Amino acid sequence: MSINPKPAYRRILLKLSGEALMGSEGFGIDPSVLGRMALEIKELVELGVQVGLVIGGGNLFRGEGLAKSGMNRVVGDHMGMLATVMNGLAMRDALDRAYVNARLMSAIELTGVCDSYNWSDAISNLKGGKVVIFCAGTGNPFFTTDSAACLRGIEIEADAVLKGTKVDGVYDSDPAQNPDANLYSELSYAQVLDQELKVMDLAAFTLARDHGLPIRVFNMNKPGALKRVVMGQNEGTVIHKMADSLGEDK
Ligand SMILES: Nc1ncnc2c1ncn2[C@@H]1O[C@H](COP(=O)(O)OP(=O)(O)O)[C@@H](O)[C@H]1O
Ligand SMILES: O=c1ccn([C@@H]2O[C@H](COP(=O)(O)OP(=O)(O)O)[C@@H](O)[C@H]2O)c(=O)[nH]1
Which domains does the chain have, with CATH numbers? Predict the structure, then answer.
């Protein structure tokens, strides 16, 4: 196995689900998980990779779940977006404690708590080697933080969206249901859509496809997997533009 000494990416958009932060607890934030993730992100910064981060809120609130219990969906989504701000505050704090310079930018204005999202400030901070955490999703109800990850990824001209999840990548069927499921190392956008593989919601996925933004899915709970992805080693599944048997992939 050859080790590639240089990172494969100059700038990435890392998406971490809220559930990734709760560790073995069923709710909330596990400080030890947060600390481990901060150290993994620090390694990337030390390699010279520019890191934008989008954090989910599913460990605290999801609008869809709250709406099922009778709450107005828009209010539920507002709570979900504020949950991502809480996760963002915790992540910025963990990065500070790991001596990593980080800025927290919110799509919803929260004076005195964090900065408001500003595209050019985000780019300057990234160029200056600061980790930029984008919270409050897109700022709009009925969207997800996967959509926010693709949107911010396109805006900051990231080389890829790296989606950290609970499984090793994208399989031909749900590995939680089928122990014999096979892991893909590479897929085209068309293959994901044709085979209805679960990567991210359709709004997020089509945004990435239409802008040719590669998505790499990997296991955030697997120590060192993030670094291997960034070093261009064979880890997880990449979904990107490729000519497939049906002709041009969009
Ligand atoms: N074809 C598939 N490949 C990989 N994971 C899949 C597939 N189908 C369903 N899943 C499930 O999707 C989950 C990960 O989805 P993800 O979007 O990261 O989480 P969430 O929906 O909780 O935000 C995994 O736990 C896995 O069981
Ligand atoms: O642009 C956005 C992003 C998120 N949310 C809300 O915030 C919640 C938490 O985000 P998400 O479910 O994407 O978190 P994850 O699954 O990544 O933890 C969502 O369920 C939505 O209710 C929203 O309304 N608009």
Answer: 11-240 (3.40.1160.10)
